[in-house]
Amino acid sequence: MLAKFKKRAATNLVQSLPYYLIRAYSLTFRLKVENELSWLDHYSKNDGTVLLCAYHQQFFSAIRYFKKYRFYSPGIMISKSRDGGLISSVAERTGWYPVRGSSSKGGPEGLKLMIKHLIKHRLAAHIVDGPLGPAGKVKAGAIRLAQAANAVIVPFYIHADRAWYFNSWDRFLLPKPFSKVILKFGDMIKFNAVEGRDEFEFQRKALENTMDREYAILKGSI
Fold this sequence. Notes:
Helix content is 43%, strand content 20%. The protein is of the alpha/beta class. The chain has one domain: Glycerol-3-phosphate (1)-acyltransferase.
């Protein structure tokens, strides 16, 4: 009994440590949030359904701030990889409901669970080019999820005036301590369901172009 308790305590410590490290590190950011109220009003006052979307490179800096949404029981799809297990633990402690699955493993089942969760709770987040890229390439899952749940897509972007960029497929962005970090939400986008492959590709490309353009503008503003 004692051995099981010690093992469980050690596991909880290992799983919780990344969460507290992220929160402590993020406290050093000089964070500025832009254009948040429009989609929050849509969610709260209009009973709207919202899917927040970001590139894999940029999500780290939003983790601490996104804890404020925990009362909405938001969902997020996280890969079934080993790294995904740590991220899932962080998400749970932040108040987000992790749905395990990705385009490379468990995708169809995960998407169904995400749709169900989004319809019920009306708020979720999605990494549009994860978990393995290519970087900046919007995959179909975000639009299919939004259409199935009748949700608006709200892209969000993060940029820092001083940051490290990892040598990874996404060139992961880690703001340096005490850097100025901007978290900017884009305008709400609604994609109606379409039947043809060409029409769907037009929507996917439109979202990709919008996110590329708006992030470029944000980077130029700092």
